[in-house]
């Protein structure tokens, strides 16, 4: 293939812009905040589950507390009724009196036991409330952290997008200067060889594969017409001669 040396040189500019665009796309994919937001989303969903569990536990303890309190009330009511009967002198025989007194004593004991249960439930309820409050605090902090990370991610993504737009615009202008057949060859090679289709020959070395050309190859290149489109023998990329190619010697 033949191409004006000026157009061959333009290929290097195009390559530089394509490489820059590739780096920008990679940067956009790997913004650290993307992973951070994902991590915080996972944490938030975990906290959501833990909060739901804490809420359920509080509901259970509420029911348990109401039940224990109603048990206490029942026993107390019965003891009070018995005490009133005793005070009102509604007892006819000493045996009945003894029975009533013993029932009152046993009801008081039972009341004491049930009150212990109420206290125990209240204590556990307090713990569960503390746990819920802690989880809510953590949830709030994680949500704030997430929104800050999301904001940084969005800012960085916006900056990258601006840089991409500017590079893409320059690329369009440069590509317009390059003849269609040369551009097509470059595009094909770039797709084939991990994003690099054209490389400079610099001090006897191909910048595409970084390998030094043999003396024989260099001798061939020295006598090749300047409009001849050269290819690296090693990596097959378009090899562009520059003032730094090291062909003078
Ligand atoms: Zn090469």
What does the secondary structure layout of this molecule look like, with pairings?
Layout: H1 5-29, H2 32-87, H3 94-177, H4 180-192, E1 198-202, E2 205-206, H5 215-223, E3 230-231, E4 238-241
Helix pairs in contact: 1-3, 2-3
The protein binds zinc ion.
Report on this structure.
The protein is mostly helical and about 250 residues long. The protein folds into 2 domains: about 5-25 and about 180-240, no CATH class; about 30-165, Orthogonal Bundle (Helix Hairpins), CATH 1.10.287.1700. It contains 5 helices and 4 strands. Strands 2-1-4-3 form a 4-stranded mixed beta sheet. Helix 1 (about 5-30) packs antiparallel against helix 3 and helix 2 runs antiparallel to helix 3 (about 95-175). About 15% of the residues are buried. The model has no long low-confidence stretch (mean pLDDT about 95). Zinc ion (ZN) binds near residues 206, 211, 232 and 235. Pfam families: CT398_CC (PF24481), Zn_ribbon_9 (PF02591). This is C4-type zinc ribbon domain-containing protein. InterPro entries: CT398_CC_hairpin, Oxidative_Scav/Glycosyltrans, Zf-RING_7.
